[in-house]
Amino acid sequence: MSMFLDTAKIKVKAGNGGDGMVAFRREKYVPNGGPWGGDGGRGGNVVFVVDEGLRTLMDFRYNRHFKAQSGEKGMTKGMHGRGAEDLIVHVPQGTTVRDAETGKILTDLIENGQKFVVAHGGRGGRGNIRFATPKNPAPEISENGEPGQERELQLELKILADVGLVGFPSVGKSTLLSVITSAKPKIGAYHFTTIVPNLGMVRTQSGESFAVADLPGLIEGASQGVGLGTQFLRHIERTRVILHVIDMSASEGRDPYEDYLAINKELESYNLRLMERPQIIVANKMDMPESAENLKVFKEKLVANYDEFDELPQIFPISSLTKQGLSTLLDATAELLDKTPEFLLYDESEMEEEAYYGFDEDTPAFEISRDDDAVWVLSGDKLEKLFTMTNFDREEAVMKFARQLRGMGVDEALRARGAKDGDLVRIGKFEFEFVD
């Protein structure tokens, strides 16, 4: 069974902030000591860190839930609770992180050691020392900690390679990779010998180096899900140069030029922008008897069907078996890489805007709906956050929450919707009576 995994869906939960504390000074010689309850500690973030030692997302196959620790509660003597440590999650280079709910891309992690906070921990709740005023010097009010951010993420690995080898199965891509790099891909005389991407480093005679990825063989219809192509086409998106390997001996009984057109059609169907990448045509298996004649016909068809305004791709006859023409091919590839810029992988419409963790002024503070059981239901991020951070064990805190609701206009809005004295109002699982 293949141990390569390049997609995963996981859930992350940052730590909640610690609850604030209600406490008072009670020393023998300090009369009317006043409030002394400290704040809660910050909850831990969930942080993704790029680890160049990882090659797949296999670690996420069985471990799909990641939860950071919550902050400590506030303590007496005005002491803060300890903040929780961040939860570090290691991911391979080339991991794209999407919000599974919105589909927006949060980050593209490509540099070793790169960090990104995917879920932010909640702040600690305030202790009663924070609520002391001249009018209320001994408040019995504290806040619960803020809930940590919780979200579902879609991870997608797109391997980092400068050059991608594409072509039909059994055209010699794996053999080519094995002779130009120290990679040891599986090689066999049957289709789909390669079922996972293989990566190797090339060093040319002139001293230049670049990474090459051998991608599982494409077939006609790959972009629509036929064969293995649709599963691994994503890995070619990061490449800057494509080496299009063609079996010029036609040993499979196919026409080399038709192979060339079919593979390009699949690349275009998967992602039109793949056709922006420069291609080098690698005419492989030139040690076979029919290859020279087939190459001549191939060139004639290519010239006849190419737009006169487009630049013809370079063609390099090689034999992976006899290592004929390899140095010329590698030098040309390195030269093309030098003048080919990085391609933008995602446009702005796919990226999530920079996160803002306050409340948008344009967003309503609350919404009112009615359940089938005739209970009024209050919802909304701001209202629900105030509710979660209210310590309902303290009467003063409950009264403060009631004043906050009134200040937000909840009472007036319920009255306008037809709420009567004694009607039940629900926030989450908490219910109370509406008092007109």
TrEMBL record:
Entry superkingdom: Bacteria
Main location: cytoplasm
Cofactor: Mg(2+)
Obg domain location: 2-160
Protein residues bound to GTP: 167-174, 192-196, 214-217, 284-287, 319-321
TM region positions: none
A GO cellular-component term linked to this record: cytoplasm
Entry's Gene Ontology BP terms: ribosome biogenesis
Name of a matching Pfam family: MMR_HSR1
OCT domain span: 358-436
E.C. code: 3.6.5.-
Gene3D superfamilies hit by this protein: GTP-binding protein OBG, C-terminal domain, GTP1/OBG domain, P-loop containing nucleotide triphosphate hydrolases
Region named Disordered: 127-147
InterPro entries documented for this protein: G_OBG, GTP-bd, GTP-bd_Obg/CgtA, GTP-bd_prot_GTP1/OBG_C_sf, GTP1-OBG_CS, GTP1_OBG_dom, GTP1_OBG_dom_sf, OBG_GTPase
Localization terms from the record: Cytoplasm
Positions annotated to bind Mg(2+): 174, 194
Keyword Nucleotide-binding: yes
GO molecular function: GTP binding; GTPase activity; magnesium ion binding
Family in the record: Belongs to the TRAFAC class OBG-HflX-like GTPase superfamily. OBG GTPase family.
Subunit-structure text: Monomer.
Summary of the function given for this chain in its UniProt record: An essential GTPase which binds GTP, GDP and possibly (p)ppGpp with moderate affinity, with high nucleotide exchange rates and a fairly low GTP hydrolysis rate. Plays a role in control of the cell cycle, stress response, ribosome biogenesis and in those bacteria that undergo differentiation, in morphogenesis control.
NCBIfam families: Obg_CgtA, Obg_CgtA_exten, PRK12296.1, PRK12297.1, PRK12299.1, small_GTP
Name listed for the protein in its UniProt record: GTPase Obg
Gene from which this protein is expressed: obgE
